[in-house]
Amino acid sequence: MILYFTADLMSNSRVTGPAKAQGIPVRVIASKRGILETIDAETTALIVDLNPPARDAISTIEEVRASHPDLRILVHGPHVQVDLLSAAKEAGAEVMTNGQFHQQVGAVLVKLAEPAS
Q1: How many angstroms separate the Cα of 87 from the Cα of each of 14, 20, 68, 82, 102?
Q2: What distance in Å separates the CA atoms of residue 111 and residue 42, rounded to the nearest whole number?
Q3: What is the edge-to-edge ordering of all strands in the sheet holding 72-77?
Q4: Is 109 helix (H, G, I), strand (E, B) or coil?
């Protein structure tokens, strides 16, 4: 299962729609606490939406990376938020701009749904 940390309803539907069409389980969670409580052995990846309001995004990435060092973490956010994207990368996430992510969302979901090797 892929966990998607977002509070943005538009981003939510732009990910859950393609995921459902491909039979990929995605669970949308809007809080840091929810993410930390939900990650389990079935979680293949965490996607973090850095679009406002991206509350607790960087600290969530840091905590998840510390407790689940092998979990794939991907963030997407506005290309103009250079500092935020850089902070996410430094925290241990793979980074994509919103344009890159939404253009490739189907392929990204397929890749992230596969168990890590």
Answers
A1: 24, 31, 18, 9, 21
A2: 15
A3: 26-29, 2-5, 45-49, 72-77, 94-97
A4: helix
The whole model's pTM is what?
Answer: 0.94
CA nearest to 78, candidates 8, 18, 2: 8
What is the pLDDT at residue 8?
Answer: 78
Q: What is the pLDDT of residue 12?
A: 81
Q: Are 30 and 47 in contact (CB under 8 A)?
A: no
Cis peptide before 69 (omega within 30 of 0): no
The pLDDT value recorded for residue 13 is 86
d(CA 34, CA 30): 7
Helix (H/G/I), strand (E/B), else coil: 92: coil
Rounded CA-CA distance 59/64 in Å is: 9
Tell me the one-letter amino acid at 89.
K
Beta strands per DSSP E along the chain: 2-5, 26-29, 45-49, 72-77, 94-97
| 75 confidence band (pLDDT: 50, 70, 90) | very high
Q: Where is pLDDT greater, at 54 or 46?
A: 46
